[in-house]
């Protein structure tokens, strides 16, 4: 028997697009001689649909589209994720479901039994756990189908609860020959290896081949890497789909396969590819064809410009340099050189005259007061206004360029450098930005080398350096990882060897700048805890609420 794992990139709520993708892969699977085509979790409507599922008309359309899809399918069985109505009269009214389609109709249904409610997941808000998983037969094989979280009940996985139910164990007791998991599992650093470990453990525990079909594509802040895979009954990884692009894997139950021993590319390559995909999908799915980046001549804007160029092509990207009285010639040169290296459009719009006009208008109100961060922020806000004007005029999506370290500390300006429609690197610590820049330059200079070697500076006052205001990034990023991603307390972080005064100041600034992050644009998520939907802290809180 041959089974196709169809790794598609759906658009949330675009049934016409998603069904076209499903039908196209069904035809590919049939041409490969497959008896079954498997599609990801909620492939019919895209994941995560969030509060769209609270609209009865949306659910009704999803059910009608499923029926229409089924009526046109002959000669192959199909597993398709969708949202079903809860057949029970208690609990939530909906179920995260999977349909078995064969002979032009829906032959059987099953649902998701374990509903994640941690980090970015909020499925208990919408769905009732399914009473049972789908089990069906093709030829002589008995196949059990789980949905995403249903297989994440293996051992102790950091950040994942241990559930009382075990859907895979229940399926094994019923007697199955093949375990299938349809997923919409977002990418985070090192997650591919965690998934592989889960599949290996299930396969060896129950002596079953395990087939994992995952969604691919960027949906808002989430990056879905695909990386669908097949692990045989002895726990060997034998098939692996492409990461961050659509793919179709065909598994032959009678085939002989070599184990894939070293499956993953360097993590820096995966992060970069994911950010490129996420930027492209966010822009295109929101209707933008062009991107706009403010180029300071520094590391962050340079990295974002490279990602933008790779995401949409150089002809669709414009970089804008906006020198102030404090911008060095080196920064102006490096911004222009980067644009030349990337082949993107480039403009320089000086802001000194506008800045002088601002100061003149405020001279009476500010009389007798020294210049401070107020004047620094005025420069950032002038730039933000100019960039948004260009964005409006040329229908270009403005990309924000702030990194995770600076965003955590509030080392950014509301309505200034925080302006934009997508924060591309907001989940990248500063040290990771340097790592990615070095990876980009591995075969030759794309980002000017002195951008990587000179001390970072906002250049908003004379001789300014980031480290005048922030701890060294190597230290800051360690503290932030401990506080944000691992939720460690002050005492725990100090016990790691960090200066108590530095830790206290970092945690204080992390808390006090929550209001800024709440107003930031959507950011692409790559770590286990990003500043976004999956991290929900009050803005107004007590001084001890670190």
Write a structural description.
The protein is of the alpha/beta class and 546 residues long. The protein folds into two domains: 2-256, Nitrilase/N-carbamoyl-D-aminoacid amidohydrolase; 272-518, HUPs (Rossmann fold, 3-Layer(aba) Sandwich), CATH 3.40.50.620. It is built from 16 helices and 19 strands. It has a six-stranded mixed beta sheet with strand order 5-4-3-2-1-14, covered by helices on one side. Strands 6-7-8-9-12-13 form a six-stranded mixed beta sheet, covered by helices on one side. The longest helix has 22 residues, at 373-394. The model has no long low-confidence stretch (mean pLDDT 95).
Strand and helix map with partners:
Blueprint: E1 2-7, H1 15-31, E2 36-38, H2 56-71, E3 77-85, E4 94-102, E5 105-111, E6 134-138, E7 141-147, H3 167-174, E8 178-183, H4 191-206, E9 210-214, E10 216-219, E11 222-225, E12 229-231, E13 237-240, E14 247-252, H5 267-285, E15 290-294, H6 299-312, E16 317-321, H7 329-342, E17 345-348, H8 352-362, H9 373-394, E18 396-400, H10 404-409, E19 422-423, H11 430-440, H12 449-453, H13 473-485, H14 490-495, H15 500-512, H16 514-518
Parallel strand pairs: 1-2, 2-3, 7-8, 8-9, 15-16, 15-18, 16-17, 18-19
Antiparallel strand pairs: 1-14, 3-4, 4-5, 6-7, 9-12, 10-11, 12-13
